[in-house]
Design brief:
The chain has 329 residues and is α/β, with parallel strands linked by helices. Helix content is 48%, strand content 13%. It contains 14 helices and ten strands. The strands form two sheets. An eight-stranded mixed β-sheet has the order 3-2-1-4-5-8-9-10, with helices on both faces. It has a two-stranded antiparallel ribbon with strand order 6-7. Helix 1 links the parallel strand 1 and strand 2. Helix 7 runs parallel beside helix 11. The termini are far apart. The structure holds 1,4-dihydronicotinamide adenine dinucleotide and 1,3-dihydroxyacetonephosphate (13P). The site of 1,3-dihydroxyacetonephosphate (13P) has 13 residues, from helix 7, helix 10 and helix 11. 1,3-dihydroxyacetonephosphate binds next to helix 7, helix 10 and helix 11. Catalyzes the reduction of the glycolytic intermediate dihydroxyacetone phosphate (DHAP) to sn-glycerol 3-phosphate (G3P), the key precursor for phospholipid synthesis. It is an enzyme of class 1 (oxidoreductase). Keywords: Cytoplasm, Lipid biosynthesis, Lipid metabolism, NAD, NADP, Nucleotide-binding, Oxidoreductase, Phospholipid biosynthesis, Phospholipid metabolism. It catalyses: sn-glycerol 3-phosphate + NADP(+) = dihydroxyacetone phosphate + NADPH + H(+); sn-glycerol 3-phosphate + NAD(+) = dihydroxyacetone phosphate + NADH + H(+).
Length: 329
């Protein structure tokens, strides 16, 4: 499978970066954009100037807005926003080859139906073999060829191994897993915690508070992950702790930057600066899942309360600090 044809759905920052990765050693990688104008601009500029300025598309990357271009792909990377995954998967259904690997690269949970991305894909693409790629990886870092390591999970370990071989490069290293649920929970939840970490930075709470917040966020992730069947080693791995540390520790993260702007006083509707902040879509559904499982997630609850304008940032910090003292679990 290593030289199998690869297509990418979604031509934002991460889609462009992964298309460049896939282009190494391949003659053509279709990069599908849902907006024909965007596909034309990419084809003309050979660069995603909005999302990845200064980082050219590899020669083999072929921007298109024609979904039929995925028909000959044995591996399709799905890199659209999580809330768009169902529509895109449904639209791809007539074109996706039987048995093709459909690798979910979005980080989020479907808000309306409370479905994980792998459940969305199972429903919309019965002919696909689903997989999930997630871990600490900023698109710009990957595009620049900086060393990066992520997890790729598929139920069938042989498929996971073959996909790791197909997608790994010298600087983009994939570790295989069969824990799809564990990998997708980590990717979705860390965006919510990154908003909280950004708020703490925006309020200048200090490095000690940042570290405490990451550790307690990890405790929340672990509790929910275990309740939903994730494996401990996944939660402690690249797609769990690894991505949490990256995203909660860098203003390069859009979720962190969004939280930071909120912490500095920006209004919820303005704080993202028009950038995709998946955590803002995931916060509510994450705590709904947690409540259903009887799992306490006070940090995620605080983020949701702030985003739904029920609590100010300062009141949320106060409430977290006033929680009863308890054992460290
Ligand atoms: N940027 C990064 O460093 C990383 C992003 N991700 C994940 O990848 C996913 C995509 O993120 P980015 O590419 O960074 O976002 P982006 O904002 O750079 O690009 C999103 C792309 O999706 C397109 N899009 C929007 N609505 C759509 C729809 N309804 N149907 C089809 N396409 C639509 C937009 O036109 C845009 O080209 C997110 O779930 C994100 O969490 C994961 C790892 C790294
Ligand atoms: O998922 C990411 C890094 O692993 C990107 O994070 P942001 O979406 O917060 O920019």
């Amino acid at each position: 499978m290593t030289r199998d044809t690869i297509a990418v759905l979604g031509a934002g920052a991460w889609g462009a970066a992964l298309a460049n990765v896939a282009a190494q050693g391949r003659r053509r990688v279709a990069l599908w954009a849902h907006d024909p104008g965007h596909a034309e601009t990419l084809a003309r500029d050979r660069e995603n100037r909005r999302h990845l300025p200064g980082l050219p598309l590899a020669h083999a990357v072929a921007p298109t807005s024609d979904l039929a271009s995925i028909a000959d792909a044995r591996v399709v990377l799905a890199v659209v926003p999580a809330q768009a995954m169902r529509d895109v998967a449904r639209a791809a259904r007539p074109y996706l080859a039987d048995g093709a690997a459909f690798v979910i690269c979005a980080k989020g949970i479907e808000r309306d139906r409370r479905h994980f991305m792998s459940e969305v894909v199972a429903e919309e693409l019965p002919q696909a073999r689903p997989a999930v790629l997630s871990g600490p990886s900023f698109a710009a870092d990957v595009c620049k060829g900086l060393p990066t390591a992520v997890t790729l999970a598929a139920a069938d370990e042989a498929l996971a191994q073959r996909l790791c071989e197909a997608l790994s490069t010298k600087t983009f290293r994939l570790y295989r897993s069969t824990d799809i649920r564990g990998v997708e929970i980590g990717g979705a939840a860390k965006n919510v915690f990154a908003i909280a970490a950004g708020m703490a930075a925006g309020r200048r709470l200090g490095a000690s508070a940042q570290a405490a917040l990451i550790a307690r966020s990890f405790a929340e992730l672990t509790r929910l992950g275990r309740a939903l069947g994730a494996r401990s080693e996944t939660l402690m791995g690249l797609s769990g702790l690894g991505d949490l540390v990256l995203t909660c520790g860098s203003a390069q993260s859009r979720n962190f930057a969004f939280g930071q702007a909120l912490g500095q006083g920006a209004a919820v509707q303005d704080a993202s600066g028009g950038k995709l902040t998946e955590g803002a879509f995931t916060a509510r559904v994450l705590i709904e899942m947690a409540r259903k499982e009887g799992v306490e997630m006070p940090i995620a609850e605080a983020v949701d309360a702030i985003l739904s304008l029920r609590l100010s940032v300062d009141a949320a910090i106060e409430a977290l600090l006033m929680r009863p003292l308890k054992a460290e679990i």
